[in-house]
Write a structure and sequence with these properties.
Alpha-D-Glucose-1,6-Bisphosphate, Chain A, domain 4; START-like_dom_sf; 3 helices; alpha+beta; COQ10_START; globular; SRPBCC family protein; 7-stranded antiparallel beta sheet
Length: about 150
């Protein structure tokens, strides 16, 4: 079961980073490369504990649907979303926001299990873990750009 962790320093407050990361509309903007769009549950605005969203996107050339639910939330420091239906066997994605003197360290901790037993583990090794790492890094950098370039001066 792969665990991916990515840290991104952002010159913005934890509150700004937290709200950007849980905003459905922002998620759609930061994942445009996969044509991701909300098609069920909360399809716009800020997610709260207990909310869920169904995403439709194209990953690895295949249109897919995935439903995730916000299971835990401690504003503005952490929230956890869990896949309740989708292509993975399971996943837990913890988003953590640690204030620093100059901004915030945003940490993505993504723990997933692929379906299909040993075939899924082979896919992890061959390409899926790298694909998911790149996806998370690209989204984190897009959030960083939004947070740093939309500050009130």
């Amino acid at each position: 079961m792969p665990i991916i962790e990515h840290r991104e320093f952002i010159k913005a407050s934890a509150e700004v980073c937290f709200d950007l990361a849980r905003n459905v509309d922002v998620h759609t903007l930061t994942t445009a490369h996969t044509k991701e769009r909300a098609v069920g549950g909360n399809t716009s605005g800020l997610m709260e504990k207990g909310d869920y969203v169904t995403w439709e996107a194209v990953h690895l050339g295949v249109k897919q649907r995935l439903t995730a639910k916000i299971m835990e939330m401690e504003r503005p420091h952490m929230f956890i979303d869990v896949m309740v239906e989708g292509a993975f066997h399971s996943f837990i994605h913890t988003h953590t926001f640690k204030p620093t003197d100059n901004g915030t360290v945003m940490i993505d901790h993504f723990h997933y299990k692929s379906p299909f037993g040993w075939v899924g583990r082979l896919a992890d090794w061959l390409f899926l873990e790298k694909y998911m790492t790149n996806f998370l890094v690209q989204r984190a950098r897009a959030l960083k750009d939004m947070a740093e370039n939309n500050q009130d001066s």
